[in-house]
Amino acid sequence: MLSLDDITTKQAALDVFTSIVECNPSTVREYMLQETQSTQDDDELLLNLVISEIQSDPDPELSGALNLLNYLKLLIDPENMIAVSIIEKTEFLSFFYFRSMSVLLAPLMANTIDLKLGRDDFHIAQLQYLILDFLTFCIEHHTYHIRNFLQKKDLLRRVLILLKSKHQYLQLSALRFLRKIIGLKDEQYNLIIVRNNLFASIVDAYKANKRRYNLLNSAMIELFEFIRQENIKTLINYFVENFYSDFESINYVKTFHDLKLCYSTQRDKRERILSDSSPTSSTSRFYDHLNTNHILSV
């Protein structure tokens, strides 16, 4: 019924869908998995028809889209799959990421083609905000599937393009997504950030903000302060070696100075270890030991 053009019929179908998801999400998941066996057309899948309704919500505030996304969260929430076997859980998440996640992200991906922000009106900003909120939920609750998807689609780079938006709430949402990823302290994510030079987007946003003390400024400082407090070495080294010069003159917070101090401490420690383990150092200690014994024997 969701594929029909009649608005009343569609709304009735959505009401039935949300009621069943709320009462018995496992039944909906089971139906969706069975549906994949009978259709190869992604556009005909129930989940993708629901996503289509999310993207076409006529409400300026997208209240209907927000409501439907919350029901999608119920479907993919691992904590809501306690009675489901690990195999069934993995099967459903694999289906979701393989056949529906790209459909959900289509507006975001289309609006960041060539790594440039396209439309930036309120409606598209609001839709992208809801998508980012959903992605943040996935980062919090999934591991393997979202990380693979993020890497394959270069998704984090696309998200950080939203830092160029004129809507501060969307900028903050993009930054919160990155902060959530860094908060996992997962070295694979850290390496994705470094290899793709993703802090460049943060630095550009910081410069564009012109040091105005606002929520965006505070959120960026908090992100770097977290990296310092948690001593995330990969990101500390990456930041100091590539971007410290852009922040060296900032003295109203100690964060950047302390990051440089952490970096220098780590570097000195590495150099001492290398020095102590070098053949020359070992030989020197050997002869010092011989000389000491000779003096004692005399």
Automatic annotation (TrEMBL):
Please give the GO cellular component terms listed in this UniProt entry: nucleoplasm; protein phosphatase 4 complex
Source taxon at top rank = Eukaryota
InterPro entries for the chain? ARM-type_fold (IPR016024), P4R3-like_central_dom (IPR006887), PP4R3-like (IPR051137)
Q: What is the species of this protein?
A: Rotaria sordida
Give UniProt keywords alphabetically.
Nucleus
A family per Pfam: PP4R3
**Per its record, what are the GO molecular function terms?**
protein phosphatase activator activity
Q: What is one process in the GO biological process aspect for this record?
A: DNA damage response
Q: Which residues form the Serine/threonine-protein phosphatase 4 regulatory subunit 3-like central domain?
A: 2-263
Q: Is-annotated flag, keyword Nucleus? A: yes
* Protein name, UniProt field: Serine/threonine-protein phosphatase 4 regulatory subunit 3-like central domain-containing protein
Q: Where in the cell is it found?
A: Nucleus
